[in-house]
Design goal:
Elements (H helix, E strand, L loop, with lengths): L3 H8 L6 E4 L1 H4 L6 H17 L5 E4 L2 H12 L3 E5 L4 H16 L3 E5 L21 H8 L42 H4 L7 H15 L3 H4 L12 H5 L5 H7 L13 H23 L21 H9 L5 H13 L4 H14 L4 H11 L5 H12 L14 H8 L4 H6 L8 H4 L7 H6 L15 H13 L3
Parallel strand pairs: 1-2, 3-4
Helix pairs in contact: 4-5, 12-17, 14-15, 16-17
This protein binds a DNA duplex (15 and 15 nucleotides) through helix 15 and helix 22.
DNA sequence: TGAAATGTTGGGGCG
DNA sequence: ACGCCCCAACATTTC
């Protein structure tokens, strides 16, 4: 448990652990469906670890906290610092309010290796390009804090009747039956689950990570993103676990793999850096010339993408993985995003919104920074003309077709040669594999070559 | 953390 | 032996 805010509170006296579900202040930034399910499970786990002492609330934190503080006579309230713009603003207001009634507030970093204001260029400006941000910035300032290894020694204060706390189910995070039932078998939503995922990765994924991370059918990725997002593991714990410290997990993977994995952790930091210094990142293109881009507004097409019925196997496999598990392999995220933005020319914000609703690792910083990256409108973005060819990508990164076959089973019997673009397969091959295109599996919703050309033309019109 | 079009080179077949 | 053509295989440029 690497939670500085909890540790601080546990050391300063009797403890009243609180979680507030604050949709009211979040407004449009309120968390999506997959997140709510994960949160529901995570709160259950947390409450167990806190021996049933977790108090739950629902509403505007700036109204609730002062009330609770008064009722319990709290002297200090500490919490983990957040970086979403709406939370940053709210937390500042809360500190002011509590200060006025004599309650000390302490905000501590429990989720980033480096604070966004600590990694700046020599001229004091924030970095906008990843590589110098990481190499000249992060790696040259003070090393990340060592994770805390001792469990906080909690002495809880007695709950008071009428303190307004709710039962977990009253937070209405999940309905009794629903989509989340599908997610459940894929995840162990607990801190223990996070540690398990870390050791599985260190043992089986890290060796060969650098090359293997691009292949969705391999098990070289860590799948730690949801745990990181929800604070069930800290980036510091991961960072130092890679060192093979005597007290921590040992690790003997090649340096190139370790360095590359660390740089991926740093991409997360970079996203937070961008969001902190550009609060409009989730809604506004960093390159203003994209303001005039003419996006295609087509709900029916968007829905085909969302449901994994585009007729492009690698795209559909990715979108179905997302729907079934609340997760998608990173390489495939880039492919489906490129397809939506470039081949369909649908606004990146529509894709961002779908990911926000369906990913269990939905994270405002990473999600918005990454969508802008693919769209080519971000700070250090892929140039707009870098259009993925999803069929080529499939042949390159799913060479045996295992990933496509898993999530698009109706094509499972197609020979490898035709799996990436079934629309080019001879009729005899299709019927041999039991596939009637347009019936068992859709015809491609766009022509890849034509839609690529149309995208280039549309982008060209900008400048 | 592309892809496609275009340019260059060099080996082998062949008259 | 020689030049010519063809075309992989690579390299460079363009979008």
């Amino acid at each position: 448990m690497d939670n500085p805010a909890l540790m601080k509170a546990a050391k300063s006296g009797a403890l009243l652990p609180i979680y507030i579900l604050d949709d009211e202040t979040a407004g449009e930034a309120a968390m999506g469906g997959a997140s709510r399910w994960w949160l529901y499970e995570a709160l259950k786990d947390l409450d167990q670890q806190l021996e049933g002492h977790l108090r739950l609330y629902r509403g505007a934190a700036e109204d609730i906290l002062p009330e609770v503080a008064k009722l319990y006579g709290a002297s200090t309230i500490s919490w983990t610092r957040c970086y979403e713009p709406w939370r940053t603003r709210r937390d500042r207001r809360i500190s002011e309010t509590l200060d006025q009634i004599g309650v000390t507030t302490i905000r501590l970093n429990g989720s980033l290796l480096w604070e966004p204001w600590e990694v700046l260029k020599k001229d004091g400006e924030p970095y906008r390009v990843f590589t110098p941000y990481y190499r000249k910035g992060c790696l040259q300032v003070e090393a990340p804090a060592r994770p805390m290894t001792e469990k906080p020694d909690c002495r809880f204060c007695k709950a008071k009747a009428g303190d307004g706390a709710l039962a977990l189910n009253d937070l209405a995070l999940v309905s009794p039956v629903g989509w989340h039932d599908m997610l459940e078998p894929h995840w162990d939503v607990s801190e223990q689950g996070a540690q398990k995922a870390l050791s599985v990765f260190l043992e089986h994924g890290l060796d060969g990570y650098k090359a293997g991370r691009d292949f969705p059918a391999r098990t070289n990725t860590s799948r730690l993103s949801p745990y990181l997002h929800w604070g069930q593991i800290s980036p510091n714990q991961i960072w130092y676990a890679l060192e093979g410290d005597a007290q921590m997990e040992t690790c003997d993977a090649p340096d190139a793999d370790i360095d590359h994995f660390r740089s991926e952790l740093a991409w997360r930091e970079f996203s937070y850096n961008l969001l902190y210094h550009n609060p409009e990142l989730p809604r506004v293109a960093l390159q203003s010339k994209f303001d005039g881009f003419e996006w295609v507004d087509d709900e029916a097409q968007l829905e085909r993408w969302q449901k994994g019925a585009t007729g492009i196997p690698i795209v559909d496999a990715g979108m179905r993985e997302l729907w079934q598990t609340g997760y998608m392999h990173n390489r495939v995220r880039m492919i489906v995003a490129s397809f939506l933005i470039k081949n369909l020319r649908i606004d990146w914000r529509k894709g961002e919104a779908w990911f926000w609703d369906t990913l269990v690792d939905a994270d405002l910083a990473s999600n918005s920074a990454s969508w802008q990256w693919v769209a080519g409108c971000g700070a250090d973005a892929a140039p707009y003309f870098r259009v993925f060819n999803p069929a080529l990508q499939a042949e390159k990164f799913d060479p045996k077709g295992d990933y496509i076959r898993q999530y698009v089973p109706e094509l499972a019997r197609l020979p490898q040669k035709h799996l990436a673009k079934p629309w080019e397969a001879p009729e005899a091959v299709l019927s041999e594999a039991g596939v009637a295109l347009g019936k068992d599996y859709p015809l491609p919703m766009v022509d890849l070559k034509k839609s690529r050309a149309a995208a280039l033309e549309a982008y060209q019109a900008l400048s």
